[in-house]
Amino acid sequence: MTETTTLTGATLPDGRVRNVVLRHGTVSHISPVGIPDPRQAAIDLTGYLLLPAPAEPHLHLDRALSWEPVGSDAGGRDGAVRSWRAAPTRYDVGDLRRRARAALQVLSANGVTSVRTHVDFGVGAPLRVIEILRELREDLQRVLDLQIVAVASPGLSDRAALEAFAAGAALLGGRPHSSPDPRGETRRLLRLADRAEVDLDLHLDDQPDHRVLAVADLARLLRASGFGRQVTASHCASLGTLRPPALAKVVEAIAASRLAVVGLPSAPLTDARTGRGAHGLAPCGGPTPLRALLEAGVPLTAGGDHLRDALHTMGRGDPLEVASLLVTAGQLSVDQAYAAVSTDARRIMGLPDAGPEPGAVADLLAVRASSLAEAVLAAPSDRIVLRRGRVVSRTAMGKAAGHTRATIGRQRTRVPAGAR
Question: What is the mean pLDDT of the chain?
């Protein structure tokens, strides 16, 4: 592709139909529809809505696409975890590399150009997993960004935890609630992140219980410690169990701490047998927590969490599906929902702004739709994905273009040679 490319006849999010000119991986300018310069490359986007490319802020690549070989125990969430831990090949090098690559190709075909993956390591989970994903990150860097969060097991020594960054991790993660001393573990993780000079992204309150509010505790610790790096809390399920007065106080504390929150609307929080969450409480993820966080100015994004594994067997790796859940379950507007899986996700992930705006990075998703509402509702299969101004995926129902073909359900997708 030449250094300058014109996207002709694209429908912008505000409904205008324009030509969008890309130069050196960024959006140069937007102009009225006209005949493009024949000396420059052009892509006809007539009938396509042009959007900022989505970003995936919370995924577990080490488990992705493992449901069929691993299966799922009937014991709800705990049973799913047992199934994964019992899998004899869960960290087989060849299988892990194949599954992770295939999962990233699914995400790329759906429009994602940046992924943050959480990877368990420590007790029972080898450091080699991070090294494999680092190799994959380097291999696919023309197609997408891959951020690796090293989720340290409680009890892992500080020295062993810091080895993750030499192996390729860029952020530190953890599950403080799994420790006998959750507050002590949170303090330790903050200290380790500060020592390694990396951001922190923690799993907190991933099983709803109003008696356990690790996110509130973290917000207080952040204000008291003066920790200066980005801290993100994923899940935060217990917020959905609070009554409005208590919720307002916790949300105020979160906003004051500058903590970012990742909602996971498809997270497997219910027990398969009872339909209720942990401790017999109703599952979280209702509308109040999400809207309350947004209205308080808390940086909020949303992700898919699991992709066709024992914990979420039907995940599609599609940000439009996540946005739809944010509208239906979270009662966000369509604009708020799509922002949560695209521009807001990029900001929380420390990435530059992208989208059809002059000066923005040309990470773009063109989807065959006339409006954002139609795109989120129907999640059309016809998509063109650009990464820094270069087409990395074209997908269409019943037809495909490119060099390497992957089959996703009844949808045929080709990923360019650079994705291999």
Answer: 84
Q: Residue 289's pLDDT is what?
A: 82
Contact (Cβ atoms closer than 8 angstroms) between residue 292 and residue 248: yes
Using DSSP, state whether 21 is helix, strand or coil: strand
CA 168 to chain centre: 19
Contacts 24+ apart (CB under 8 A), 324-330: 324/376, 324/377, 324/379, 325/265, 325/266, 326/263, 326/265, 326/290, 326/302, 327/376, 329/265, 329/285, 329/286, 329/287, 330/263, 330/265, 330/285, 330/286, 330/287, 330/290, 330/291
Q: Which helix (H) or strand (E) holds 42?
A: strand 41-44
Which domains, ranges and CATH numbers included, belong to the chain? 4-52+353-419 (2.30.40.10), 55-348 (3.20.20.140)
Spatial distance between the Cα atoms of 287 and 309, rounded to a whole number of angstroms: 26
Q: What is the pLDDT of residues 104-122, one digit of tens each?
A: 999 999 999 999 999 998 8
Of 316, 298, 296, 295, whose CA–CA distance to 307 is shortest?
A: 316
Over residues 250-261, the pLDDT tens digits come to: 999 999 999 999
Copy the structure tokens of residue 408. 């996703």
